[in-house]
Amino acid sequence: DFLRGYIYLNVLVTGGAGYIGSHTCVVLLNAGHNVIVADNLCNSRFETIDKVKQITNKEVIFYQIDVTEDAAVAVIFSNHKIDAVIHFAGLKAVGESVEKPLVYYYNNIVSTIILTKACQKYGVKKIIFSSSATVYGENEIPFIESMKLLPTTNPYGETKVMSERILMDVVNADTALAVSLLRYFNPIGAHESGLIGEAPNGIPNNLMPYITQVAQKKLDKLKVFGNDYPTVDGTGVRDYIHVMDLAEGHVAALDHLTAGVHIYNLGTGQGTSVLQLTKAFEEANGVEIPYVIVDRRPGDIAECYADVSKAESKLNWKAKRGIVDMCLDAWRFESK
Ligand code: NAD
Ligand code: WQD
C-alpha cells in the first residue's frame, strides 16, 4: 500500500450517490483509489452506495452531509487525509432553477466555495469540478474549450459559469492548486450491471429518462420539443455520452492533473437528434416509443456537440461506447 497518496488517492466525491458521481465511484474504486462520499441525498438514495460496493466489492466511506455547511465539511477533512476532491454535488434541474434561483445560486456556488476553502485549509491540491456544456451558450458548434463563453439562459447555467470563474480566480492566487473543469455534454446510459443508473424523481426533464419511462409505459408518449430546428430532421441535436465513458474521463483527468486550471470537454464529438435517439432506442431494445411533436422548449438550442480533441490529446481519453450501448444500458437499468 506504499503507493497510497502517490498513484492511489483518497478521493472525496461530493454528490457520489447521484447519477454521474456513483458511476465515477465505481471507476475510481476499480482503479484502486479510496472513496469517501459526501452527499445529502436530496436527489439520490443511500442504496446506490450499497450497489457501488456490490459492483466493485470495495468499501465506500459515506457521510450524509450538506456540503454547503462548513462545519460538516471540516469533519471529513479532519477525519481523512484527502488527496483530491471531485465536486459533483449540485442541483441540476434547469426549469426549477428559473423558479428558485436563490436555491440554485446558494447550493451550487456556496458548495464550491466551502469545498475550495477546505482544500486550502487542509492542503488538498487537486480539485475536479462538474461543469457543463451549457456554459458555452449559443456559440458556434462544435464547442471548443478556448471559446469565449456566451450567456446561458438560466440560473443553473450561470452557477456553472460562476463556479468555474471562482475556481480560476482561486488558482490565480494559489498557483500550487491543480483544478480541472470538466464540461459534460449529455450523459445517458447506465453501468452495464443495471444496478446503478439515472433515476430522477417525478416526471423526467431529460430526454433519455423520459424515453425509458415511455418504454415502461409509466408515461404515455414522448413529447418531442420542436421539429423546425435547422438540423438533420428538425429536432434538437445533442452530444450524448455514455455515463461510464464520462466516469472514466474523471479518472483520466485525475491521473493527468497538474498545477493550474485545465478545462476539458467530455463528449463524443457526435451529434444525435431526438428522433435518431428515439429510433435507436426502439431498434436496440425492440420496444416502441410513441411520440408527438409539440412546441419548442424555451431556452433550448438547436444543436450542441463537442470538439473532443483536447481531452483526447492531453488526457489520453476518448469515449468508446456508442448510442446503441447507451440505449441498451439505460433500458437494462430502467427495466430492472
Ligand atoms: P444528481 O442529482 O444525480 O447528483 C447530484 C448529487 O448531489 C445528488 O446525489 C444530490 O443528493 C447531491 N447534492 C446536491 N446538493 C448537495 C449538497 N448541498 N450537499 C450534498 N450533496 C448534495 O446529478 P448528476 O447528473 O449526477 O450531476 C452531477 C453533477 O454534474 C452536477 O453538478 C450537475 O450539475 C453536473 N452536470 C450534470 C449533467 C447531466 O446532464 N446529468 C450535465 C452537466 C453537468
Ligand atoms: C435533449 C434534447 C430537447 C426532453 C440538459 C441541460 C444541460 C445539461 C444536460 C446539466 C433537446 C429534447 C427533451 C423531452 C424532448 N445538464 N427533449 N423531449 O436540454 O440538452 O441539456 O441536460 O448541466 O445543462 O440543459 O438535455 O435531455 O433535456 O434534452 O424533445 O421530453 O431532447 O429539446 O433537444 P439538454 P435534455
Automatic annotation (TrEMBL):
InterPro entries: Epimerase_deHydtase, NAD(P)-bd_dom_sf, UDP_G4E. It catalyses: UDP-alpha-D-glucose = UDP-alpha-D-galactose. This is UDP-glucose 4-epimerase. Keywords: Carbohydrate metabolism, Galactose metabolism, Isomerase, NAD. GO terms for molecular function: UDP-glucose 4-epimerase activity. Residues 11-267 form the NAD-dependent epimerase/dehydratase domain. Pathway: Carbohydrate metabolism; galactose metabolism. Its EC number is 5.1.3.2. It comes from Sporomusa silvacetica DSM 10669. Transmembrane segments: none annotated. Its cofactor is NAD(+). Pfam families: Epimerase. NCBIfam families: galE, PRK10675.1. Homodimer. It comes from the Bacteria. The gene is galE_2. Belongs to the NAD(P)-dependent epimerase/dehydratase family. CDD domains: UDP_G4E_1_SDR_e.
